Structure formats: structure tokens, C-alpha cells
Amino acid sequence: xxxxxxxxxxxxxxxxxxxxxxxxxxxxxxxxxxxxxxxxxxxxxxxxxxxxxxxxxxxxxxxxxxxxxxxxxxxxxxxxxxxxxxxxxxxxxxxxxxxxxxxxxxxxxxxxxxxxxxxxxxxxxxxxxxxxxxxxxxxxxxxxxxxxxxxxxxxxxxxxxxxxxxxxxxxxxxxxxxxxxxxxxxxxxxxxxxxxxxxxxxxxxxxxxxxxxxxxxxxxxxxxxxxxxxxxxxxxxxxxxxxxxxxxxxxxxxxxxxx
Amino acid sequence: xxxxxxxxxxxxxxxxxxxxxxxxxxxxxxxxxxxxxxxxxxxxxxxxxxxxxxxxxxxxxxxxxxxxxxxxxxxxxxxxxxxxxxxxxxxxxxxxxxxxxxxxxxxxxxxxxxxxxxxxxxxxxxxxxxxxxxxxxxxxxxxxxxxxxxxxxxxxxxxxxxxxxxxxxxxxxxxxxxxxxxxxxxxxxxxxxxxxxxxxxxxxxxxxxxxxxxxxxxxxxxxxxxxxxxxxxxxxxxxxxxxxxxxxxxxxxxxxx
Lengths: 259, 257
Prior knowledge:
The complex is a heterodimer. Chain A is built from eight helices and six strands; from the N terminus they run E-H-E-H-E-E-E-H-E-H-H-H-H-H. Helices cover about 35% and strands about 10% of the residues of chain A. The two termini of chain A are about 15 Å apart. In chain A, the strands form two sheets. In chain A, strands 2-1-3-6 form a four-stranded parallel sheet, sandwiched between helices. In chain A, strands 4-5 form a two-stranded antiparallel ribbon. Chain A has one domain: Rossmann fold (3-Layer(aba) Sandwich), CATH 3.40.50. Chain A has helices at about 30-40, 55-65, 105-125, 140-145, 150-155, 175-190, 210-220, 240-255; strands spanning about 5, 40-45, 70-80, 85-90, 95-100, 130-135. Chain A is of the alpha/beta class. Chain B is α/β, with parallel strands linked by helices. Chain B has nine helices and seven strands, in the order βαβαβββαβαααβααα. Chain B has a five-stranded parallel sheet, with helices on both faces. The longest helix of chain B is centred in the middle third of the chain and has 21 residues, at about 105-125. The interface of A and B includes residues 93, 96, 103, 105 and 171 of A.
């Protein structure tokens, strides 16, 4: 049986637990498990909550290098927000992350993520491995709009609302900054292949980024989104949400002729 | 049309290198990438920057290769720096910025990150069937474990006061140096199976104890008598004009062997 190797953040974490609901059972199958079952592959899932794109690229690189290449059936990177800053420490290389990069502005966080997407693609192409990647969360919008409090923040301080945001630090002006960020994304995306959430139109600066979570939310815009998320306090996908994401990925794998 | 030599690295490779300790010295002598390109009859693209870390080194080479016609690339050659450095880009001033050591993580995480850069660089070159070489210019982690030297600013201040810079205390490494060195050496050796060691000059990762070497130690900082006259000064160990020629000759010999 070939292996499906996947990495990502909390939406790709098989051991996902909600800080808002510590007593709830979250042991339902997550999207990587559905996709692996559909493809008849053995799953190697490296996703971990709170981590960013350096974690995702590094864990995939480590796993690919330690796995005989003929055993690999597909590699999927479910990329996260660009402003997270990952690092490792200790003899056992425990991964940690800062929610917002301490030094880098948002444009350069996006640029660094784009280079990680490129490096992932080059790695898979070098070893002739089937691969695809997509944005699970928004690469820049959540930070650009101001980062909302986390589930943990809200739990510690119940008075916090969505309006209590970590503000976006302007580089020049909001308008110019967003144009530059979009220009940066467009520049790289034309070099990036097998990207499942890629819909850049001809007018390349007038596009809207979309993510796998957007797909889920958009689809249920007129329905009941509450049916697809853990709870109003925790908007991670629930059991039905994970099934929806996996169905969408499976469809796109076929549309994009990945496998 | 001439082939292109792409070079990445830190201050030892930077074509615009200027001595912070001796600002009065004109350091505009040719650096090894330009000298090597001339010897190989190639055009040189040198993206090295003084003080920068391995994150910049990898990303700058990635950008350059990605944006260059692959048919024109004759050789890619990269000199890695210390693991503990951290570099990032800042839009406002359109520059890269650097910290002498990352404030997050530790030497184990930084070293692993650098080893992953080695592999990413190797994949990048192999993906496009490019001729490539790489090496550690200066030690990967030993300077951190020995206790980091003060930065150039402190040396300049001591010299202004006629004090001996050698007497400036080093930053003390907080862990167990011997034990952690052994652990880091094992980490490097664990990566060996993934590294094409024929393309890595001085493998393992420039570590003397494991039989490797850094370019600096083989050229301008070899045995004490060998290095003399090849460095800028007693306090600035960067290669001078002769040192750069020596580095180029060493690399040229490696390319031909």
C-alpha cells in the first residue's frame, strides 16, 4: 500500500482538541483520513495545531527524505497563515510557534511562504512524486484585517470579542500594501503548479484569494454553517466539515489530474 | 553567450564587503566568486551579503535560480554561514535585516534548520540538473558552543580605548558544551545519507572533529603561519585580496578534481 503524506496546521491535526471544549470528543475522522481511505493509501499525517508554513515544509521534507520514494503515492501540503513563525528547540526538536512573526512585516511573510511553496514543489518534482498543495487558511487576509483573539484568548478573557484584534501594522498604506501583497502572490503563483485553491484571473491584481475553509463556508453560505464547525466559540471544521473538505479535495485531485 | 556562475554566501563572499573594524581600508578587491567566474570564463551573479544567515543564503539562491534561464547556468556555488544567525526582509527600507542569533529556539533547532537548507539547496540544483557545490565558509555551530565572540561594534569600541579586544569576555553557552557538541555531530551525521557528499566540499558540514573542514580553515585561517598575510588584520579575520585569491584557487582545484 502506498503512502499519503500530509502536513498542515490545526485543520490537519489528527489529534485536534478544542481548548474551548476540553471535555468534548474530537476523535472523528479528519480530512486526511477520508482522502487516504478514498485513495486506498496508508496515511502519514504530520499536521499540528498552531504551526505555520515553515513547520509544514520542514515536516514534509523530513518525511519524504526518510521514506523510500517508491512507497509514496501522494504528498499534500495544506498551507497555513503566512505570519506564523515556527522554530524548534531541545534535543528532540520540539516545534513551537509565535502566532505573529516577531520581526517580519506581512508582505515579507507572504514572500517567505511563497518560497516555501516553491521549495515544496521543487522537492516533489526532484523525486518525481505526485503532489498537490492548497491554502487551508488565508495566507494574509486574517492578519491584514486584524487578527482576532484565539479560542484560548476568549476562554481566558470572556469579555473579548471579535473586535479585539491584533492590528495590522501598515507598511506604506493599507491600499498600497495590499496591492504589493497581491502582486507578490501573483508573481509566484504563475510558477506554482498543482495548487488546488488557485483562481487567479487574467487581471492578476484583481483577484480574491480563496482557501479550503472559504470553500466550506461559501458552500454553506445560504445554509447552516454552524452545522460544519465545532461551535460558535471554535470555528474549526467539525466531523461534517472535515468530510466536506475531503470530498472537495478528492474532486479537485481529479479535476487537476493529480492522481 | 557566456554561462553564468551563481554564488551565495555571507561576508566572505560578499562583493561589496566593507570592514566594520577598519572602515578606513578600501576592501573593493575582487572576491572569490568574481575571480572564479573569470577563471572559468563565466559571467558572475553574486548574491552574497555580509552578516547574513543561512535563511537568506538559501532564499537568495532560490530566487536567482528561479528567475534565471536554466540553460545559461554553468555553476552554482554556495558558502554557508553560522546556524544561529537570523535574517529577514523588511519592506519599508527594502533591506534584509540580521540578528547575530535568533531569539527563538536553540542551537539544536537552528542547526537542523541549516541542514534542511543544505538539502533544499541540493534539491533545487538537482531538480534543474545544475552543476553545484557547497561548503561551510565558517563553522556551523561551534562558535556558539564556544561562547559567541562579541560583535564588531564592541571590538571597535575596545580598539578606540586602546584595550585588547581579546580580553572581551565571550557570551557563555548555557548548556553542556561537550554533550551538546556530540549531539549536534550525531545530528549532522544523521543527515549524511541525504547529502551528496561529492558536491559538499569539507563534508561533514565543515566539522573538524568528524574529518570535515570549513573553507576559511583550509585557506585563510589554516595553520597559523599559513594564514598570515591573507586576512585583513589581527582583529578582522575576513580574507584580504590575497586571501580571496587563495580561496578561489582552492575552489578551482576542487572543481577540477
